[in-house]
């Protein structure tokens, strides 16, 4: 189809990480293992929260949402990347590329807002513990979760629409591992200033605003912890927030580095590594962080393993 001498492409070619076959096979094995660990780890966290009544609290309700988002984010990129690592023709149809961009942006936006919601939950737990159950009631938790999902989806829909209405002419080679928004915009044969401004605006609204809310929450949390007289009390309050704070540092840092200044942002190689970080590493690490650094989750794991051991012993006898 042609418009004003511009040709609209029907598929894109993803250049990926390497052209060397041995390297691609090694990466395939590595990313496949990491993807399996990601899916199993996050689903086990969700299952554990469902099975253990002690984890039926707002914090773990939001953690369930986070685990589902992590699996979805990884699934939106890794399976296609695995196929392309072993394929000679690394093509992705126009519609599939648009869908991939939508879902990767969607899950990322939801996660940024959800982490701010989780920070508020930790703020109430530490700074106003006596009224925690009154403030963080089921209705509020549901509304906050819905707000996270809706805001991320609306932002993603807008960006996907304005990105794929750009004429790509005959440019179809995306120097990336997936249909990442900055990589796709670079293919346009028209001025993309308005798209870059839109990215900047949405980064402020959906990235920096939640990040600032997280900072404000933790300023109040740290201030409250420092006022606690007993060392044991301070340690307990800190452990309440340690897992979430670790995930916050991982998730917000590179996103701010990538999207706040798209014109003078990272190189193409850095963009690829950052995408791998979000699609592969972070979703795999999050359940590990919450399992290792959280006493309640470790206790639930021990209880579940004890029950499974008991059942196995009875079956054996």
TrEMBL record:
<dbReference type="InterPro" id="IPR017452">
    <property type="entry name" value="GPCR_Rhodpsn_7TM"/>
</dbReference>
<comment type="similarity">
    <text>Belongs to the G-protein coupled receptor 1 family.</text>
</comment>
<feature type="transmembrane region" description="Helical">
    <location>
        <begin position="240"/>
        <end position="261"/>
    </location>
</feature>
<keyword id="KW-0716">Sensory transduction</keyword>
<protein>
    <recommendedName>
        <fullName>Olfactory receptor</fullName>
    </recommendedName>
</protein>
<dbReference type="InterPro" id="IPR000725">
    <property type="entry name" value="Olfact_rcpt"/>
</dbReference>
<feature type="domain" description="G-protein coupled receptors family 1 profile">
    <location>
        <begin position="41"/>
        <end position="290"/>
    </location>
</feature>
<dbReference type="GO" id="GO:0004984">
    <property type="term" value="F:olfactory receptor activity"/>
</dbReference>
<keyword id="KW-0812">Transmembrane</keyword>
<keyword id="KW-0472">Membrane</keyword>
<feature type="transmembrane region" description="Helical">
    <location>
        <begin position="197"/>
        <end position="219"/>
    </location>
</feature>
<feature type="transmembrane region" description="Helical">
    <location>
        <begin position="98"/>
        <end position="120"/>
    </location>
</feature>
<keyword id="KW-0675">Receptor</keyword>
<comment type="function">
    <text>Putative odorant or sperm cell receptor.</text>
</comment>
<keyword id="KW-1133">Transmembrane helix</keyword>
<feature type="transmembrane region" description="Helical">
    <location>
        <begin position="60"/>
        <end position="78"/>
    </location>
</feature>
<feature type="transmembrane region" description="Helical">
    <location>
        <begin position="25"/>
        <end position="48"/>
    </location>
</feature>
<feature type="transmembrane region" description="Helical">
    <location>
        <begin position="273"/>
        <end position="292"/>
    </location>
</feature>
<keyword id="KW-0807">Transducer</keyword>
<dbReference type="GO" id="GO:0004930">
    <property type="term" value="F:G protein-coupled receptor activity"/>
</dbReference>
<dbReference type="GO" id="GO:0005886">
    <property type="term" value="C:plasma membrane"/>
</dbReference>
<keyword id="KW-0552">Olfaction</keyword>
<dbReference type="InterPro" id="IPR000276">
    <property type="entry name" value="GPCR_Rhodpsn"/>
</dbReference>
<dbReference type="Pfam" id="PF13853">
    <property type="entry name" value="7tm_4"/>
</dbReference>
<keyword id="KW-0297">G-protein coupled receptor</keyword>
<keyword id="KW-1003">Cell membrane</keyword>
